[in-house]
Amino acid sequence: MKKTVKIVAASAVIMLILSALVFDAKNMTDAIVSAIETCLYTIIPALFGFMAVSSYLLKSGLYRILFKPLYLLLRHIIKLSEDEFGVFLLSLFGGYPVGAKLIADNKITRDILPYCYCPSPGFVITVAGIGLFRNPSAGLLVYFSNVLSCVFLAAVLSRKNTENNIKAQYASLQLNVFTPAVLSASSALFPVCAVVVAFGVIKGALQFTGLESSFVFAALEISNTAKLMPNPVLLPLIAALFSTGGLCIITQIPALTNKKIPLKGFFLWRIPAAVLSALFCRLLMPFINFSVYVPASTGAGAVIPTQAGSPVASAALLIMAVILVKTAGEKKPTSA
Description:
mainly alpha
């Protein structure tokens, strides 16, 4: 019965998309172009640098030196091994996919993904801060609310099954890992952008049905948050949305991890994580200055420009990444 329901639901979605592609081609084309522009103007510039730096720190082992003071300070509160703690901290500024990818790539056995899932500060400031409120402080508020939510969950959940995980696995520093770090970040960007474009198709299909809900679009793909009503009262809700990452980000996790890590706990903890983010956001709101604020006359759902400059740099980055990945894949070990 359950399988039948899934088949019927999937068939209905496919038929809706096909109908929209045939009978509303112009709108569907615009939706796809908009999703591609989101990747070029927002996602790649905001995420790539954080992802590459995070990957380099972990692959080189430098995180053990940089994070050592903080680890010694928090190790009795957040009961993680030094390696796990490094992945946890890197996930807090690397962007949504970084935590999952680092956990899978480094074969961490414990289920730490529920609290290694956070937007990068650059992404939140671009979308929620500048894009929605034209105020970077609003983006920082949302980001720190998400960080506090992750820290709280880490302090609670890391106390489970610590016996075999507290001991750190040390390795020598390897500073010559720039190319592998870039490749790792690039390989994560491909599925991210591909799924964003796919959700652009779904957004166009929903518009074909007459559904024009900014909140639904934001819940599907988090960068659509920039088109919500710029009202500070909604900030806790926006913080909750960023804590979930939207359905688009959630569907990327299995692809990035190749199903190497359990996802059941990750899905279950998204709701309390969102509630905690909203709560922390509400508590921090009095400390934020909203003097730089988009006038109400802009209207609900108005498109606030977040695009700046040219997408050429992002396109060139993707081309470079393709070349690097292809070159790395073609290299074969030489025989002794």
